[in-house]
Amino acid sequence: MSTSYDPSGVHPVLGVDAGTTTLREADHLIRDLTTTLALPPGTVACTHLIRTEARRGTAVSLELPDGASAADAWRHLTESEAPQGDQEAAAQAAAEHTARRSGRAVLFPGAERLTGTIPLSDLLTLSAIDRVIVVGATSGEPPALTTPVHTQDHVRPEWRGGELVLALVPAVGNTLAPFEVPNPTPCCADHP
After folding, report:
1. d(CA 27, CA 55)
2. CA–CA gap between residue 112 and residue 127 (Å, rounded)
3. Which pLDDT tens digit goes with each residue over 107-158?
4. 0.85 exceeded by pTM
5. Rounded to 5 degrees, what angle do the CA atoms 115, 30, 79 make?
């Protein structure tokens, strides 16, 4: 596992590359790190697609709520694991998250409250999600805050221009659902 950490930075963000290749593997890595590092409430953990000369795959970033928590996580990561992965990928993940340019949030404040079907207003007020966009919306108007959102217990907003933004799609009965589904069918799964 390779990590990147700048203790002088304003945002205590760690980048971690453990050699994961898929978003699902990176999601599992975040869940494992949440337990292993005892990540405190307020932590934001994201996946990042990595495309460098040395690496194709995913890395993760961990934004901890304070410098002490970041230092503890950094210490645990660097003392307990043999270095693996690509340090450039870890640094890229940390830099993108710090700048809030990219990163698919798996763990974020309020994520645990986004289960079942909830009003859009709850999605925005109970979590760190700043705004939503509706993919394929033709009206150009934002959805009503009373619109039900079928979360499928799988909500993955992304950093875009400094905001945590969730992409939604229209669903049956004038409802919405996250664009990303929990268990997508792999391309070409229905034929050899």
Report:
1. 18
2. 9
3. 999 999 999 999 999 999 999 999 999 998 777 788 999 999 999 999 999 9
4. yes
5. 150
